[in-house]
Specification:
It contains 10 helices and 10 strands. By secondary structure, the chain is an alpha/beta fold. It has a single domain, classed as Rossmann fold, CATH 3.40.50. Bound molecules: adenosine-5'-diphosphate (ADP) and magnesium ion (MG).
Length: 281
């Protein structure tokens, strides 16, 4: 069994009126099955409302399945006794860094997680240092988080999760509120966690350019997994992506159009560099 495994996972939000009567049921996750191996870099794509966040919240036992099962490192999230271990195994990073930072000083903030876990003080400081170095924020350890940029704050949130030594990090649109340079910083840091530290990464995003380094991509639509494959397999299906209302990168679109015009090109061109190489110019 992989680090995250879902079997026929269903989650329904129940809508109620002011008197508490059930008005309707919204099936946000609809029979999702997946198996994510330790050490993989997984991207989850999908239009707004496709169920990505609802699925992610199951990976941290914030939500429990209406039907089906989700296991984190073999632990069933439905079992109350597993919750503490599940939250240490799979850390979560959310969209808005301002809601995740609580400390007045960067290093203090990063130390909160391990402190709550009862880690001895000396080891907390070691973890804080190693986590801040891993996201390239060590030189800011004495700063006040309030004065940092969005990308820097988000890297501090990631360091805070890292300091708990999780096997897996789930990031729910961590770059959605950032400018392009902040987005790049965060994605670079996330790739480092996976490449260097061997941590399983589950990155939820709607930016297609952030997924090109993923081992595997899942595309969600209306609560279901609509597509799955390598980035290249996914990007080879331009029409399907457009049907699912996803923005295909310019270079992939261009290659797709050229191919339609008869230019000989491989499927699923991901970068400008690849297109130039394939065109032999
Ligand atoms: P995504 O993260 O892909 O945008 P979500 O998981 O947030 O998707 O939402 C999936 C569906 O569930 C949407 O139709 C959304 O409106 C609905 N939904 C999300 N959160 C709630 C909630 N707290 N109460 C009721 N419906 C919700
Ligand atoms: Mg979401």
């Amino acid at each position: 069994m992989g680090i995250i495994k879902a079997k026929d996972l269903v989650y329904e939000y129940i809508r109620r009126d002011e008197d508490g009567n059930v008005e309707g049921i919204n099936t946000a996750v609809d029979h999702v099955s997946l198996d994510i191996k330790q050490g993989q870099f997984i991207a989850i794509l999908g239009h707004n409302g496709s169920g990505k966040s609802t699925l992610a919240k199951h990976m941290n036992a914030i939500l429990n399945p209406t039907e089906g099962t989700l296991w984190v490192d073999g632990m069933d999230t439905n079992e109350e006794k597993n919750i503490w271990n599940i939250r240490q195994t799979a850390g979560m990073v959310f969209q808005n860094p301002d809601n995740q930072i609580i400390g007045q000083v960067v290093e203090e903030d990063v130390g909160f997680g391990p402190e709550n876990m009862g880690i001895p003080t000396k080891e907390i400081w070691e973890r804080v240092e190693e986590s801040l170095r891993a996201v390239g924020m060590y030189e800011f350890r004495k700063h006040s988080p309030n004065k940092l940029s969005g990308g820097q704050k988000q890297r501090i949130s990631i360091a805070g999760v890292l300091a708990m030594h999780p096997k897996c990090i789930v990031l729910d649109e961590p770059t959605a509120m950032l400018d392009p340079s902040g987005r790049k910083e965060v994605i670079r840091a996330v790739r480092g966690l996976n490449d260097v530290e061997g941590i399983t990464v589950i990155l939820i995003t709607h930016y297609m350019d952030e997924i090109i380094h993923a081992d595997k991509v899942f595309v969600m639509d209306k609560g279901k997994i609509a597509m799955e494959g390598t980035p290249r397999e996914i990007f080879s299906q331009v029409e399907k992506l457009q049907e699912l209302r996803l923005d295909v990168p310019q270079v992939t679109l261009l290659a797709h159009e050229l191919k339609k015009q008869g230019v000989k090109l491989p499927d699923g061109i991901l970068t400008t560099k690849e297109l130039i190489a394939a065109l032999g110019i």
